[in-house]
Amino acid sequence: MEPLAWLYARQGWVKPGLERILALLARLGNPQEAYPVALVGGTNGKGTVARALAAILEEAGLRVGLYTSPHLVDFRERVAIQGRPIGQEAVLSLLEEIRPQAESLEATFFEVATALALLHFAREGVEFAVLEVGLGGRFDATNATEPQLSVVTNIGHDHLEILGPTLRDVAREKAGIFRKGVPALTAARGEGLEELRERARTMGTPLWVLGEEFSLLGVEALGEGLAFRLRIRGEERTFRTRLLGPHQAENLALAAVSGRLLGAGWEAVEKGLLRAENPGRLERLPWPGGRELLLDGAHNPEGAWALRQALRFHGLLPAALVLGFSREKDHRAMAEALKGLGPVVLTRYASPRSQDPRALLPLFPGALVEEEPLKAVERAFTLENRVVVAGSLYLVGEVKRALLGLPPEERWQ
């Protein structure tokens, strides 16, 4: 079986525990020990924080490896050095090398992908690696590393069937990336923050909390992004970004303070935040006829509310919505968050994990159904001049693939 097909066949397995990834890395020579690491977890925003932090450290002069998930169009997006995705030949070669060990250990898709990234970073001589946590934290494959800094962006209602059932349970799992004496940062609130505090105290982890050790003083919408003011240790700084949505100011504040704690100067922070990108998160694409397509991976209730706020904050309404969800998500809560924003076309992405759009009709009265995502987008453009695709990063990825003339890719992870 072709290497990528072999890897994709391992999707859908969720087997908690670090035993397999630790054994796999040991057989590969423990590449994760070749460079320092930052771990970025949380319910929403971890991709933004990871990408922005990598950009800051690059501006500070470091050769930086970045590992994120999921990809949108191409697996190679997950593994990048200095912002450049891993080459296709390197992916195939590393998979061939890892495969025998992975099969003997029954390693999962994400464990193999993580091992591939860590091995690639070691061989390419990165000086720092920023790793986005996949699911939870305590048993996530990225937690086989020993971070110099940990981030838990926030605690929300996602993957409760695995991490829950309560927000405290979710927070406890995500706090698994904390280490004794190693600084951690969070923008969490409420009971999630309470649990993170308790875990930090128990473990001896210095915890930096947004609104306490550092604060946002204001967020302003710009024509092509945001401006926000940050206070840390009595010092105030103003930053700009091309990212959209007031929620991104919190994520970028976490990245900025993380960069400072890792030794980056303010100039590197400023430049890194200004060039930070996160495809598929309120990504704006021009459409023929002066129209506009927005792609957003909002896939849980908190993400849906953040999308709603962002569309209003930036004056991006009216808009038609193209929505598709994974089966296990809280569809009712997401429907409540997106209610009344505009006409809805329901669709699905190419996986058995995707929810049947017709089953969602009771939650979206008057919605249309179009099974194929790109046809759903085209139909939505008959309703409004601006269309927002949301509900799943897999759906966003499938739309992007279709726009590039690529076939759907069955996705589970």
From TrEMBL:
Which SUPFAM superfamilies does the record associate with it?
A: MurD-like peptide ligases, catalytic domain, MurD-like peptide ligases, peptide-binding domain
Record keywords, A-Z: ATP-binding, Ligase, Magnesium, Metal-binding, Nucleotide-binding
Q: Which residues form the Mur ligase central domain?
A: 40-257
Q: Could you tell me what reaction this enzyme catalyses? A: (6S)-5,6,7,8-tetrahydrofolyl-(gamma-L-Glu)(n) + L-glutamate + ATP = (6S)-5,6,7,8-tetrahydrofolyl-(gamma-L-Glu)(n+1) + ADP + phosphate + H(+)
Is the keyword Ligase assigned to this protein? yes
Residues of the Mur ligase C-terminal domain: 280-382
Q: What is its EC number?
A: 6.3.2.17
Q: Which NCBIfam families match?
A: folC (TIGR01499)
- Give the family, as the similarity comment puts it: Belongs to the folylpolyglutamate synthase family.
Kindly provide the name given to this protein in its UniProt entry.
tetrahydrofolate synthase
